[in-house]
Amino acid sequence: MKITDLKCAIIGNNPIVRITTDEGVHGLGQAESFKPYLKPHVMFYKNYILGEDPTNVERVMQKIRRMGSFKPWGAAVSAIEMALWDIAGKAAGIPVYKLLGGKVRDRVRIYNGGVRFEMLGHTPQDYANDVAKMKAAPQGFTIIKQAIGFHSPMPSKVPNFFYGDVVTGPPHPNRGLMTERGMNHVVECVAAMKEVLGDEIGLALDCGPGWTVTDAIRLGRALEPYHILWLEDLITGDYTPYALADVYREVTRSSPTPIHTGEQLYLRQNFKELIEKHAVNVVGPDPADVGGLAELKWIAEYADLHG
Length: 307
Description:
Layout: E1 3-11, E2 14-21, E3 26-30, H1 39-44, H2 46-49, H3 57-64, H4 74-92, H5 96-99, H6 124-135, E4 143-147, H7 154-157, E5 162-163, E6 177-178, H8 180-197, E7 202-206, H9 213-222, E8 231-232, H10 245-254, E9 259-261, H11 269-276, E10 282-283, H12 293-305
Parallel strand pairs: 4-7, 7-8, 8-9, 9-10
Antiparallel strand pairs: 1-2, 2-3, 5-6
Helix pairs in contact: 6-8, 9-10
Organism: Kouleothrix aurantiaca
GO molecular function: lyase activity
Pfam families: MR_MLE_C, MR_MLE_N
């Protein structure tokens, strides 16, 4: 079997990758929205994979993997990798998970990161109302992840939220020292959400990037009574092309609330230091950004090896 073509279509702002073969088998891979600008990046790899056997996934990936980068640019490579596995599974007549080692469990707990409702404001009551709707959603989520701090509109919607001028434009552009008012507002919003969720629904918080080490530690300590599952991307995060493991380790060692990062990172090499130094409590590689399914599996196994 040989790869004969690589195509990319933008459907609903999602780049959809299609790899075709000389045996009529095709594979599909998808990058998350909003990434319509990725199409030329996907097509850049076309000449490198034409003529290759798509079922030799690792061999094909060795030709293109090193030319990807941190979020969002790793998504092009990741979508191609998933399309290759799709072909390999179809050719073998088995689900891809069996090719990757088989099933470990029958059920996987997921959190609500995508079923969202329009928020009318950013007061504690607004946050309470929002998670109440999520709690009542028919999907029956047992964990909810909510954006707060610099990952939310708080910097521009809450007066005197932080010491700095509000920046608009790119994703999550604000960073700086929190004011006392800003810190209190975040804690009050979390308290309001936990009042609704109780101990029935777990709450995780997407926080940044943008926090200073001092403020990140202060937040972790302030939220200890609420049993938050994790504080995500406080220092670096979405669209930040580095990890800063030593900085995260300082926060993690001082915070009683678990610390999380990794969504923006590309390839296993960029998780190695985070995991080996126990720089965070939770790593969160995104298969659509990290390099694909096999890359995600390696990182998960390496994290498990280190506790």
